[in-house]
């Protein structure tokens, strides 16, 4: 069955109508309450937008029935809810999790139950499971391009702050390694409890130590609070920019207008992405959410997870995880960020990183892009110690951000 093959990541609504349409139950597992609720709500909106398109396509022999659960940002709830979705509701695919803690809690469940986790958020790498499809960027697709830009332009003395869990620990560690490999020195490395907004002590230390730039690996409300406090400091003294691998338009929305501007972020998707694929995607999403709705990488990562899964089910004529795994790693998929391929060795997506600068409207304006999608290197086998270098889909060495 080829119902999605020629469609832009939207869904075709023409073609023969099947006599009957069977239901495919799918677990949607995002925290829409709790410490990083805004990210969860954004991801849920993206997943539901894709499900709506799938279910509107009368040429498909199936429709998706979402099983929506909210773990409320509590790590222990992810395993319980994913187990119940698979065992009691017949879900063979879990779309979700945001933090690395939650992903690592769900992985043993899907591995034991023979299910498949679809993960669409940037993460710290050093992981590959046959029971997961990784559609978010790993370090050679976010941190290394960012530091390739920052170190030669702003200096080699970063101040690094991260949320106190796996993402913060590992990205801070890699940032230190990259900095030292370039001959630089990390001024300080600090952690904040996940969800905490008590960051005044960090601002005081940054003021005192005067780094060349700040790398912010904080998540959700912590990131917003940090940027707001940092802006208060820059109103009194000259300070360097905040650089980040995970702050999106979403974190800027709740800031005062002046505080939104002047931050540097890297991502595989920004609302500003000016490509035919994204223009078409945004036009479709405007019909659903309105033209004023900014789209973020959180929305798009979840949307892609559902959309690629649905096209794989259509191709394989089954939702069996083994068949889906073989399908998604053997072809390219049209998505809002362009064509995406998934490496059969690691089940990570090849992705094209972009570098953007935020403005007073809370939008990230793209200033530079990788010339091609970069093959994921989750264990940094090729890239570690070479922050300026990535590899394209042919294995050719290339400069990531120029």
Automatic annotation (TrEMBL):
<dbReference type="Pfam" id="PF13433">
    <property type="entry name" value="Peripla_BP_5"/>
</dbReference>
<protein>
    <recommendedName>
        <fullName>Amidase</fullName>
    </recommendedName>
</protein>
<dbReference type="InterPro" id="IPR028082">
    <property type="entry name" value="Peripla_BP_I"/>
</dbReference>
């Amino acid at each position: 069955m080829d119902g999605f093959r020629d469609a832009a990541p939207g869904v075709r609504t023409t073609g023969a109508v099947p006599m009957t349409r069977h239901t495919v139950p799918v677990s949607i597992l995002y925290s829409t309450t709790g410490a990083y609720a805004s990210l969860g709500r954004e991801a849920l909106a993206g997943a539901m937008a894709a499900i709506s398109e799938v279910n509107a396509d009368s040429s498909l022999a199936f429709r998706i029935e979402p099983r929506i659960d909210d773990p409320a940002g509590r790590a222990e709830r992810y395993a319980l809810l994913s187990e119940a979705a698979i065992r009691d509701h017949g879900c063979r695919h879990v779309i979700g999790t945001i933090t690395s803690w939650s992903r690592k809690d769900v992985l043993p469940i899907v591995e034991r139950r023979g299910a498949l986790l679809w993960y669409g958020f940037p993460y710290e790498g050093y992981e590959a499971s046959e029971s997961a499809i990784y559609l978010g960027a790993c370090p050679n697709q976010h941190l290394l391009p960012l530091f390739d830009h920052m170190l030669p332009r702003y200096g080699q003395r970063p101040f690094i702050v991260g949320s106190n869990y796996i993402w913060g620990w590992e990205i801070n560690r890699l940032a230190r390694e990259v900095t030292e490999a370039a001959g630089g020195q990390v001024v300080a490395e600090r952690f904040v409890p996940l969800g905490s907004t008590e960051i005044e002590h960090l601002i005081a230390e940054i003021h005192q130590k005067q780094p060349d730039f700040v790398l912010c690996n904080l998540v959700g409300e912590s990131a917003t609070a940090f940027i707001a406090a940092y802006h208060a400091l820059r109103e009194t003294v000259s300070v360097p920019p905040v650089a980040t691998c995970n702050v999106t338009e979403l974190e800027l929305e709740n800031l005062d207008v002046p505080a939104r501007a002047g931050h540097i972020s890297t991502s595989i998707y920004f609302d500003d992405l000016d490509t035919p694929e994204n223009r078409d995607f945004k036009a479709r999403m405007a019909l659903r959410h309105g033209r004023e709705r900014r789209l973020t990488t959180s929305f798009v990562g979840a949307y892609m997870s559902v959309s690629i899964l649905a096209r794989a089910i259509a191709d394989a004529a089954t939702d069996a995880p083994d068949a889906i795994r073989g399908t998604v790693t053997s072809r390219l998929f049209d998505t809002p960020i362009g064509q995406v391929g998934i490496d059969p060795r690691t089940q990570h997506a090849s992705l094209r990183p972009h570098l953007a600068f935020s403005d007073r409207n809370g939008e990230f304006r793209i200033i530079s892009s990788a010339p091609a999608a970069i093959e994921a290197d989750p264990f940094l086998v090729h890239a570690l110690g070479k922050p300026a270098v990535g590899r394209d889909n042919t294995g050719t060495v290339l400069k990531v951000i120029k």
